[in-house]
Structures are given as C-alpha cells and as structure tokens.
Protein: Phage integrase family protein
Organism: Amycolatopsis rubida
Amino acid sequence: MQVVHEWNTAVHVQDAEGDPRRRALTLDELEAFFDAADNRVARIRKLGRKGWLPAYRDAVLFKVAYGYGLRRNEARMLDTPDFGRNPHAPEFGGRGVCNVRFGKAMKGSPPKRRTVLTVWEWTPEVLAEWTEEVRPLLASPGNDALWPSERAARVGLAQIDARFAAVRDELGLDDAVDFHTLRRSYITHLIEDGWDPLFVQQQAGHEHASTTAIYTCVSSDFRTRTLRQALDKTMKTALAAGEGKR
C-alpha cells in the first residue's frame, strides 16, 4: 500500500502529462474540432440515418466538457438537475453552475464533489438547445442522465472515446490528443485569458496549484505578452522613481 502525499501525487500527474505530444489545443484547433463534430451530425442527418441523435449528443458533450473543464467520467455522469443558478451571474439563467458529483477521488475515497461556475455565455446556450429540443428525442421517460444512449441509460466511456477519436482522426490530429485534452485546453485558455490562477485551480478541482501548473500549456504568444507587460511595468516604475528624484 502506498501512502499518498502531495509530492508523489504531483509526480503521478506529471508522469501522465509528461508526453510532449500531450498539449492544449489552440483556439483555432478547438473551433475546428467542434465544427467537425457538428458537421458529422449534419452529414448523418442528410443521409436520413438514425445516428444523428447520438452524434448530436457527442458534439454537445465535447463542448460541455471543455466549457467546464471536466474529466471524462465527470462529464459522462452528469444529470440534467446538476445545473443551477449563480446569483452573481444571473445572465446565465439556470445554467450558471455545474455541480460535479463524480469528481476524481483518492484511492479508497468516495468521488469528490465540486461546483464549477459557468464562464462563457455560449455554454448555457448549447446546453439549453440540447436539453430542451434534442435530448427528449433520445432519452427514455424518467431518465435524468444528461447523455443518454440509444442502448442504455447513459453513454459509455468506450463510446465517448471512440467518437472523440473519430473526430480527431478526421482532422489529422496526433493520437496523443484525447478527451482529457479538452480539460487541458480549458485550463490553459482561462490562464491565457487572464483569469486568476486560484480561480482556475478551484474550477479544475485541483487541491494544489502545482497540479494546475502542470496542466497549463500556454502559447509562446502568451509568454511574449506576459514578458512585455512585465518589462513595461518595470520601466514605468523606474521612470516614476526617476521623476520623483528630480
């Protein structure tokens, strides 16, 4: 039996993230991925095949997983009542928070819960269209699973992986790009957009800031902007000090 400490937990995460091919998607790549998933729905529906409903589900699942920075099983286990209002962001209506009930747990512990706040206005819109217009065509009565399957109450992990891989391969992305890439991209994009690192850490459900840092794959443009801002701030401070001595 291994005793879990902060240092060896971080090592395990670092090992998992150590493959240099594991990275965040750029915003252009992410948009292309979502567009490709949407286009699969349109193609299947145009051919008159039944599979457009599961394809639609998968396209929305990918967007929601990114929109809240969710792990694969966290996203899979969502139910329709898991969303609620954020009194500090009424513009999001009844989808201002996402209550994650099946977060990653330490070995031998129950799933960790956390509340993830909605940060992008498109996320509630995507959810509303799915839950109100399309999901009822696929879900059986009394089934609260957000992502029902045509053969089961809830879509399976293997099915999610297969659908993700199909879109990834269609775009010619490296096979190191997997479902977890959406979470990695969410964390990175929030940091690049200037969100407070502590807020990002809490959104991701990381106990330690070091774990969030391992997941962050900021672009060279972001590093250049950060350097420029730091240099400008230093120069401004130096000039102000010089003026004060005159």
